[in-house]
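User: Structure tokens for both sequences below?

Assistant:
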Amino acid sequence: MNYPEDIDDYIDNINNNQEDLPDYIDDDDDNQNDDNQDNIFINPVPGPRVILPVVNNPNNEPINKKKISIPDDMINDNIYKDSLKLYNLRTNTDILYERNTIITESGKKIYFFVKTSKLESGDIPQVDKLIFTNEYNFKVKKNTIPSGINEIIFGVEYNKSIDKDGLPSELEVLEFKCDFNQDLIIDTSPRIEYETYICVLPRKIKKINLGECYNREIKSDSLPESLETLIIGNSFNKRMKFFSAHLKHLELGTGYQHMFKEGELPQTLENLILGNEYNQEFKKGVLPKSLLNLKLGNGYNQKFKKGVLPPELISLELGNKYNQEFDLDVLPKSLKTLCIGNDFNQKIFNHILHEGLLILKLGDAYDIQLVEGTLPEGLQGLKLGDKYNYEFTKGILPNSLTLLGLGSKYSHKIEEDVWPNSINDLVLVGSVHNLPIINNLPFINNIAFINLQIDVNNLPVSIQTISLINKEGIKHLTKIPFGCEII
């Protein structure tokens, strides 16, 4: 197999047939839990070189550098002939168009509007997606953006009102970056007649990202009923009382610290992400039964009581400060992914983790020996942090395990009768403490080193791929099996 740049992406999706695993776990784009780093599963490698075509530059004229916002979902590994090389798109600093440009990606036409003068009717062609330069900051007037556009991204400096019919009625995705902080109102609200300095939203929008600076009250007529995804950044601290009846994904940043009451969150909600300062206890009945994925930031440290977590929950991610013991039957039987941050160091008793759990990650502070029966049969991915240094004995590791990750302090070899035959992939830091296990590996297919610091010359002949997260570690691979691929 080919390891991704971030080993977490592999362990999170270890079962490719498990469609219910959430996409957002350890997502680099999530800026609310940046401090929640797993030392054993990190990605120090810079982003990929990305090449995109310049469609409307037939004369191949020189193009000067210019700042423009490019969203992360445009980053791809596709290679196009006669194209313009773009580097480090994640920083939004080195984009290159000096004039308005159309590109095509995945069959969609995307228009980059880089003018910093006022938008006029006819300026925008018929495209699927519109992206404004970071510097653009003029009010959007009626009918200046053509119909048919279903996604619009405003740049960092945009903070102006938007007239009724300023946005196309077909719009489904709307994103603001940093400075935006205008009152919202749907286009059917009577408030339009007397309110000024408002942003009028069409009624079919499904996804809104209000950016980092947004901190306005959300009223009953602020958001359309069609809304399925709402993301608000770290400045937002107004208590939310009104939610779309169709909302599926809610993400609130560091500033939000208000307790949710029973019945407030919609019964359609599937994904809930709360920021690093949120530390309010969830009462029974607050989290809707529809919830599948719950991610709580680094500040959360409230003990869960029986019946609080929804019965169909698939994924639970708890931040670095979480350090509460789990009682029997607190975790739902539906749970497939459990990730706990670096401060957690509570004993996990037998039968706390139900069969059906696929992935378990425990942070760097975890220093309690696992015993037979702790890990459920069916577990496929196990990650242990830096402090864990207990020898595995027979029966501790379930026979279903396919990936094992160990920290920099792990210093024991694993006997052949202890090692499940199902394990194909091993992730190690590659420190001097790891030598006993490195020199006594069973027949596995793939190994990854996070930061290889010791010479390796005794890998089993079964190794097919060696992944080096820190590429400088290649100098320590003094002997590799024949036919092995280094990636």
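Moving on to the next sequence.
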Amino acid sequence: MIGYRPFVLWVLRGVLVVTLAGCGTSLRGEERGALIDDMEAPDAAKLWIAASTPISNDKIVAQGGRSLEWRIDTSSGKHAGIRHRNLAVATAGADGIRFQCYNEEPVDYTIAVLVYPGEGEGYYIYPLRLSWSGWKEIAIRFDEFSAKKTNQRIPDKIGSIGFDASWQFRGETQGTPPPVLYLDDLGLFKAPQEVLSKNMLQNGGFEAGPRGGWSFNNGSVTVSDAVAHSGHYAACLVGPVGDYAPLRTS
């Protein structure tokens, strides 16, 4: 009897759901909300609480005359992050945060983008894989963050914003050296209506597990954080070659 080899198909968030994060977006002027920090002040680095000390840079900039240079240092084995000092930014009318980020070359490395509403009010986290080179405009919707230590799904204010490369977010390939990143033009944004109108699938990002909003047969479906286009999870469909193993919306 001829056996079969199973196939594995990853269904990534964003195949059916249009998202801004990780897509190299180019926001129009009317979509840019309040500016939080343009990094232009000569002492801009002093506005950041840092384990890996950032410095002001005037050589590699997205716009204006300066950016924030962050040399990630994980040698201490502790948190290697930067965090903007006390902010008081209302999120009403905004859909997420945006910033420009320069990465010299794609690396097998993931950092965390963090939003803190205030002390003792939990935080929101988004994993950002450094898979591009040069400058890229990153726009992350609030509903793409995972809420931690809070029952509020989306923050109603921002007390602080951070970027972290702690032990759980270091290079996925052993020995991957920490990169040097440049940050610029940190602010809020309003998602284009054409993007919001297309996100109509229930559990289209598979963040609620493989069952919510989906049905399948003659195979197995799991979710995993091993491969994801955006958010934390993607669906993994496993079934026999040549057999019928559909995955469809319920």
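User: Anything stand out in the second?

Assistant: The radius of gyration is 20 Å.
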